[in-house]
Amino acid sequence: MTFDDQDYIQRDPLLERVLISSEELGKRCSQLGNEISRDYPDSCPILVCILKGAYVFLADLARCMSIDHEVDFMAVSSYEGGTQSTGVVKIVKDLRANITDRDVVIVEDIIDSGLTLSYLVEMLQTRSPRSIRICTLLDKTAARTKDVEVHYRGFEIPKEFVVGYGLDYDEKYRNLPFIGVLKQ
Ligand code: IMP
Ligand code: MG
After folding, report:
1. 112 is an active site residue
2. Cα distance between residue 70 and residue 102, in whole Å
3. Count H helices, E strands: the chain?
4. CA-CA distance, 44 to 68, in Å (whole number)?
5. Residues within a 6 A CB radius of ligand 1
6. In the prediction, which pLDDT does 2 show?
7. 166-182: average pLDDT
8. Are strands 152-156 and 162-163 parallel, antiparallel or unpaired?
9. Strands 131-139 and 46-51
10. Closest atom of ligand 1 to CA, residue 54
11. Does 107 score more than 80 pLDDT?
12. CA dist 20 → 6, 11, 106 (Å)
């Protein structure tokens, strides 16, 4: 853990601890970038960043890739039914790219219940891509209510609310260079 990570924790009384340090994030991004580059040697995949949470991860991941690729962005919001997510998501911002016959890698910050991504994958499948894979930085596997196939997983984490490295609490903390846990 670098001094900087710990420094943020000491300065903010709402932050409890560092879960994944900036150093660990950097190493894992590099491994994932290499892995994806090996898997798509000739196809120029489209990395689809799910806004807003995945923008930091995408930026680091893309710079760890050694193959030609494109990036595109999509923003979704969940329709909430009471306190439970219904699993129906609204496309707030759609892709500009045509993904027909293309290899798509969805880049997500975190998978929790899996409802958002399973809906999204189903929706993108209707556009007839050659393939769709999911790359998520974080995975709360224990919280899953809907199965999704994850091809690239940065870290499996416990069912705690985390912030930083793109992930927010009330739109704040996205700028933390590490993944931290908020005090309950
Ligand atoms: P799912 O549909 O339950 O898998 O929801 C995934 C989405 O919930 C993520 O893309 C995040 O926007 C949000 N989310 C889930 N857990 C956390 C967390 O611990 N911190 C911040 N956002 C989270
Ligand atoms: Mg997200």
Report:
1. yes
2. 11
3. 4, 9
4. 5
5. 53, 85, 109-116, 161-162, 167
6. 64
7. 96
8. unpaired
9. unpaired
10. 10
11. yes
12. 11, 18, 22
In a mutational test of the pocket of ligand 1, which residue from 167, 178, 181, 183 has the highest number of ligand atoms less than 8 Å from its CB?
167
CATH of the domain at 154: 3.40.50.2020
Q: What span, in angstroms and rounded, lies between the C-alpha atoms of 102 and 44?
A: 8
Residue spans of alpha helices (H) in the chain: 3-11, 22-39, 55-63, 115-125
Nearest ligand 1 atom to the CA of 109 is: 10
Residue 9 identity: I
> Ligand 1 test: best mutation among 79, 110, 111, 162, most atoms within 8 Å of CB?
110
The model's pLDDT over 119-149, given as tens digits with 9 standing for 90+, comes to 999 999 999 999 999 999 999 999 999 999 9
Q: How far, CA to CA in Å, does 44 sit from each of 58, 65, 81, 138, 143?
A: 16, 11, 39, 25, 33
> Is residue 155 helix, strand or coil?
strand
Nearest CA to ligand 1 atom 20: 162
Q: Which domain covers residue 150, as residue numbers? A: 5-182
Read off the pTM.
0.94
Q: Does the pLDDT of residue 49 top 70, yes or no?
A: yes
* Alpha-carbon radius of gyration of the chain: 16
Burial class (CB in 10 A: 0-12, 13-18, 19+), 142: exposed
If one counts the domains in the chain, the total is 1
